[in-house]
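[INFO] parsing input record for AraC family transcriptional regulator
[DEBUG] input buffer:
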Amino acid sequence: MGIRSTNSLPKGFSQNNQLPIRLVAPNFGHLSPESVINYGHTHRLSYYFFLFVLDGVTRHGVDLEKIEVGKHELLFSLPHQIQQLPISAHGNDYYKLGFDEECLSQLPRYYPFLLNPLNQQKIRFSSAAASRMQAIFEILLGLLTAPNTSPDLILAHLNSLLTEINTAYFAGDTKPADDRLTKYIGFKVFVENNLTDHPSIKDIAQELALSTDSLYQIVKQYSGHSPKEFVTNRLILEARRRMYYGDRSSVKELAFELGFNDPDYFSRLFKKVTGKTVAEFSQDLS
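[DEBUG] output buffer:
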């Protein structure tokens, strides 16, 4: 399997003795300059990250793409994504939140938006919803000022926060309970868990109890790509992530790591998807 199943906050990041969670606001929770230097401007996430902007504008990098985040907007990044921190400040008023899989596992429900089925890293909130978000963040900030705060209190408000985000994520779209979206989420989970095994579209359809035609229609509806294109794009994204953050393996080694038996085929596929050869992409990173 090419994707790790557990994640963790970097050592010393947590603000609670029992939960892996950290909250940052303009006047709260900032790391020391030394820690920021050690952590790095660009890194591969091992936890869930949220940036909620109340006022101002910032630009944040996710998987080598720059995303502008403005007033009443939230950016979220998931474990294994490449994060590029902005050099400038996060607007005038903001909250940043990070927690890992261990923390998420203690919450009482499942939040479909965390699989990003609609492929949108940014969420816009109404004024009323933004006010509720701010209120929850402020409560969490108060709870995290003391490292011995009861985890139950923190988890209760984290659940409220993620419920607000999940509702806003799917606003105006098919409800998460819709069977087609449920199947699409199942497709994404299966791809993540079996990425380097290169599952066939027929095998994925059988796993989800769908015909290949139904799977095609569902994946096309939510991603804009065919199932085969989706899997291919995900593999190439993983290649780009590994090249960007980690040892610069040879083309042959990288191909084998990602489950390709033919490095030449991998190279052709990389060029087709990115428009650049592996060597050209590596040179751009230098």
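[INFO] Residues 179-285 form a domain with the Arc Repressor Mutant, subunit A fold (CATH 1.10.10.60).
[INFO] shutting down worker
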